[in-house]
Amino acid sequence: MMREDLLYSIGEIDEKFVSEAERPYFGLMPKIMKYGSIAASLLLVMTVSFFLIFHVFFGVMGEDGMGGDADYSDGADGGSGNMSGGSGNTTGSPIEKVLYADCGSLAILEQDAGSITLSLRLVESVSKIDVRLLLNRGGEEFVLTTEESLEGTQGYIGKPAITVNGSPCDVLPTEVGSYTVTVDFRGEMLSGYSLTLITVTPFGDFE
Amino acid sequence: MEDSKIIELYFARDEAAITETSAKYGYYCKKIAMNILADLFESEECVNDTYVKVWNTVPPTVPNIFKAFLAKITRNLALDRYNEKTAKKRGGRVYESLEELSECIGSNETEQELDRGALTELINGFLSREGELSRRIFVRRYFYQDSVSEIAKRLRITESRVKTALHRARARLAEMLRGEGFTL
Questions:
Q1: CATH code given to domain B92-179
Q2: Which of A98, A133, A182, B33 could be joined to A144 by an S-S link, Cβ 3.0–4.6 Å?
């Protein structure tokens, strides 16, 4: 028997193994990330709790009255106290993180369980924008490839509705320009799932 | 375009099937061919051969996972080209893989006539028993011909861990093949 036979035989292995090896692997999260994320979550809970308790005990809400809430209303309410502050985003939501690449910049404007709105600025055209999503159902997680993200995958999600600058579109823009892109899975996604944007190549990771 | 739609085009004998395949999986196939051939021109030719083979195979074959189906065809065509072009030359990732796989199966050309189908079934059984990480490393290395550093980067682990996992997997494969009566 020749080692070449083995190499050729490996070329005929079950397609599920070939497909599996191509998908991103998140099974080995470094301990520092694992415990770091737990610590960050605890810190966040403690901070929020502290401010809630502070408001209740010192009656700040009572002094300010309901008017204080207006500062946190979104743009849809037509309030003048919007927090986004000249970022150029069209939804009025605060930008959490902006990623930069040679070809431009990208920011998440809005994200909920069923849709993601991005602000995309391209200063040079790109061949393709690669989008990867993390699908979560009760703690069980699946990573969707670009094809699955934008074309749907049987069993999890269907093809999302893509809107570019308010107009329906089949693909993400790749030419120079500024775009507000919404990828909306509502109506196509099975109940109980939530989505997180992980990576948009060539801009990098959102994690 | 969805894979099922592309396959429908092949069944309808519509040449747009090749255009769509190239647009969606051209880069993926080229990467596989490049890993084996390390030559852009050769790789492009190999990918073109892949499209022809898919055209001639589908129908009647209905690919289960179209992307993996393309990967297998590309890999085998690239290996054929590699063997033709570098029969006596030594070097490259395939040579490295062959050297490593010698641990499992030997390199004596006078040894037994082999049913590759049976061997594939054994490897499938071996892979299904491996842990997910070990299986991914094995397939990346010996199917996709990725380098150790590429695997480490992809899986976010150290290169030494990849090497160790490969070494242990080869040892388990060798033991299994020995148990099935394959001479080493």
A1: 1.20.140.160
A2: A133
